[in-house]
Amino acid sequence: MGRKPATKRRDEVKTGTAKAPAFAYRPLPGVADEMVDNTGAVRPVWQNFLSALTRMTEEGLTERFARADRYLRDAGVFYRAYGTAGVSERNWPISHIPVLIDEREWQALSEGLQQRADLLEEVIADVYGDSRLVSEGLLPPALIAANPEFLRPLVGVKPANGHYLHFLAFEVGRGPDGNWWVLADRAQAPSGAGFALETRVATTRAFSDIYAETKVHRLASFFGAFRDALLGGKRSGEGRVAVLTPGPANETYYEHAYIARYLGFMLLEGEDITVVNDQLMVRTVAGLRPISVLWRRLDASYADPLELNQHSHIGTPGLVEALRAQTVTIVNALGSGILETRALLAFMPTICRHLRGEELKLPSIATWWCGQKSEHEHVAENIEKMVIGPAYSRMPFFDDNGQSVLGSTLRSTARDSIADWLATEGQKLVGQEVVTLSTTPAWVNGKLTPRPMSLRVFAARTENGWQIMPGGFARIGSGDDVAAIAMQAGGSAADVWIVSDKPVEAHTLLPAEETFTRNMPGSLPSRAADNLFWLGRYIERAEGALRILRAWHGRFAEAADPNQPLLADVSAYLAAIDIDTKQAVPENLLRNIDSAVYSASNIRDRFSPDGWLALNDLAKTARRFKEGVKSGDDASHAMTILLRKLAGFAGLVHENMYRFTGWRFLSLGRYIERGLHMTRLLGHMSGPDAPDGALDMLLEIGDSVMTHRRRYNVNTARLTVTDLLALDPLNPRSILFQMNEIHREVEQLPNAYVNGQMSPFFREAMRLHSGLAVMTPEAMTVEVYQQLARELERLSDLLARTYLG
To answer: Partner of 201 at 20 to 30 A CA spacing, among 39, 285, 311, 596?
Structure first.
């Protein structure tokens, strides 16, 4: 039985007077709550939302939440979790109830964060510049010199555009008194902005009607202003803006790909970039192209193995030298991670007064660096109210994987030795006041339940100064413990609505119609071309194996004898390419499909969500069949299902992918692999020693049975099968058809002609095409097929040397 609809009494949430929020919501005693004030009344900004919520049934809410979850699942939004069991991909953990904040309150919070962003810029400029904060006693030397985030090779290196910081994030929490605190600054490579966008989309799927009626500030203007600022930093017409990612293994790689696609920037890894004459260059299929602005999403120490972390395999040698030459702008500057040092929070109020002549508008969480006698004595005397943790940690205490110690949990014997510990190792330690974060409603077990919350708020440097994203996302605890807020510890993310009392402007990243231009896609990085090429090959390789296996199992279902000459012959052929017909769904087939998924995962910024879903669905179905399918008719049917799913993926790619350079490499991979597949099959199964039934099986594998009947008024014969599957230019399964397509695509590739002459790769493709085009069925011998297969493999190698190296 479903829950009864909400009663009329629950609808009676009146402005400023409602005492018992819907669903018997009870805030935690002594804790500030985002929805309910300290008198128990619903805050005005929440009243319309809550009123709408109370008119819904539990079933209706469940359906709404399912819409949000379905969107995130279909869009493939994930993050990577690291634990004792290894690394796993997890769906983005959304908390469906948004956090609502009044526009006026947000304005005050934004002003405080803008001031803080300017202050952080001044601090980092001093740390890597004149170092007056240290020399004048405002920062302890040990906090800088012993800090692993202090990168000495960057001292004295001034940014090309004069700014060290361009994109920041702040962990913000509300205390018991209702005021906001900064819990941590994020300057290294702040993550989450893309997840904030996706969380907004998912939440509006759940509450589209409420969102449309509520005057919520949009997020697009924030990203548009930042994109324009990055594009404005290009030093020449040829300079490019790119996002630098550590790669698919990173926990937030999805966001890197999403942001790059959303803003229209190239997504690069360290190996895509080289430094030539102090200029940062990206390797593309058209040659080296300059990069003017690089938004890095990897930690600075890994960015240049030549001058920073020599063990890094994801950086670019020479990057620091390019910075010295001021030929590239890095977002944020290398070395900015030092601003995240937890102990630095203790000195921010004094530094603000010294540098800016004003108080911090937004205070930091109370912090004491224990490298000073009075400070470590204060922490020891007030240990019950303290959290002790690493001074150089870049994480807030609830996000540092258990490195911090909560003073109130220590036994008396441990507390007695705290003073000695702080006195001897104080420079490495920091004490922070225990935070009691405010709570916000979360939907837990069918009811609204208060959960601790912190905000991640983003700031971008634009042409008009710092702009604060009107929202961000809230990190919601899985229980009452604030330590469970971290995503890795089971927390979730909620959208943040900044609500105005007047209509808000609808923004878009697209230009106005009167400024319309058709922008050609940028140069294709060689690594992306490589992944597209091999995606095409793996997909075609899987399809070829599926067609052979379906034909084999169909005949096995009739003969029930794997030693029958035709079945034994085909089994031997498959065994030579590591496919075992004793397995209904061979492991090698699954590896080819998984390899296709891996190749696609490396180019998520260039891959449509629909294509990604279709490919993952194919992989999951194949894995499921591995366990429950038996040889014979059952396996033949399973192969048919997989072929249909693969055809669906291929259709999505063929119909939807823009016909530019990336499409050509994907297509070339498919044409070369299909040509190899058919060449090897014909060489094995159309010779004079082929067993009975081989030619009919060839036609079935080549999906050409009906075409053969219509085109030839004779029974199946070697010459007719050869003509149709090898030399017919109109048959999309024939070898010549593949060569025609290869010739057409190669001619459109960059540098197909060099100084008016064909490139070596183009010339080789032309030679193969011409040689096959003049052949007759009688001339197609086993030796010819073997030679053609070798030449196709050489063509693939030549393509790799020409474009993918």
So the answer is: 596
Q: Which amino acid is at 432?
A: Q
pLDDT tens string 626-644: 988 999 999 999 999 999 9
Q: Which candidate, 235, 327, 241, 330, places its Cα nearest to that of 278?
A: 327
Return left, alpha or beta for 560; rule: phi > 0 is left, psi -120 to 50 is alpha, else beta: left
Within 8 A by CB and 6+ apart from 308, the residues are 151, 153, 300, 301, 302, 315, 320, 334
The CA distance from 616 to 600, in Å, is 10
Q: For the residues 643-657, what does the mean pLDDT come to?
A: 90
Residue 51: beta bridge partners?
none
The angle formed by the CA atoms of residues 181, 184 and 188, to the nearest 5 degrees, is 150
Pairing of strands 266-268, 240-244: parallel
Q: Which of 55-69, 476-490, 598-612 has the lowest mean pLDDT?
A: 476-490
Q: How far apart are alpha carbons 291 and 288 in whole angstroms? A: 10
Residue 514 contacts by C-beta under 8 Å, 6 or more apart in sequence?
none
Q: Is-contact 475 93, C-beta < 8 A?
A: no
pLDDT tens for each residue of 86-132: 556 778 889 999 999 999 999 999 999 999 999 999 999 999 999 99
In tens, the pLDDT along 160-205 reads 999 999 999 999 998 888 889 999 999 999 999 999 999 999 999 9
Contact 444, 484 (CB under 8 A): no
Task: Transcribe 191-238 into DSSP letters.
Answer: --HHHHHHHHHHHHHHSHHHHHHS-BPPSHHHHHHHHHHHHHT-SSTT
161: cis peptide before it, omega within 30°?
Answer: no
Q: Tell me which residue has tokens 């030795």.
A: 417
User: What gap in Å lies between CA 369 and CA 432, rounded to an integer?
Assistant: 9
**Residue 800 DSSP code:** I
What is the full DSSP assignment across 454-502?
EEEEEEEEETTEEEE-S--EEEE-SSS-GGGGSGGGT-EEEEEEEE-SS
Buried-exposed string 381-412: b where 16+ CB fall within 10 A, e elsewhere: eebeebbbbbbbbbbbbbbbeeebbebeebee
175, 438 in Cβ contact below 8 A?
Answer: yes
Count of C-beta atoms within a 10 Å radius of residue 348: 19
Range from 11-15, 118-122, 176-180, 567-571 carrying the lowest mean pLDDT:
11-15
Of 729, 733, 696, 720, residue with least CA distance to 777: 720
Contact between residue 202 and residue 94 where contact means Cβ atoms under 8 Å apart: yes
Q: How far is CA 499 from CA 198, 719, 796, in A?
A: 19, 75, 57
